[in-house]
Specification:
With 55 residues, the protein is mostly helical. The protein has one helix and no strands. It has one domain.
């Protein structure tokens, strides 16, 4: 096989890895912390309301 084919395959694979890493960075940065914070916040509100109503 020609050297150019290996180079083309390398560039293609590198571009796929970069796109996958960028997608992972975007989803890891946006979704879980906000979802966790929202769930934690609403849980604390529910606990506070439960404590107030039990008095």
């Amino acid at each position: 096989m020609h050297d150019q084919i290996y180079l083309f395959m390398h560039h293609t694979h590198a571009a796929e890895l970069r796109a996958e890493a960028a997608a992972h960075r975007f989803t890891a940065r946006v979704s879980p912390p906000q979802q966790f914070r929202a769930r934690l916040g609403w849980t604390l509100v529910a606990i506070g309301l439960h404590l107030i109503s039990s008095r």
